[in-house]
Amino acid sequence: MLFLVVALLLLGVVLGAVAHAPLTVSVAAGLVIALWLGIFAVRERHGRRRSTSAH
Question: What is the Cα–Cα distance from 34 to 21, expressed in whole angstroms?
Answer without folding.
Answer: 18
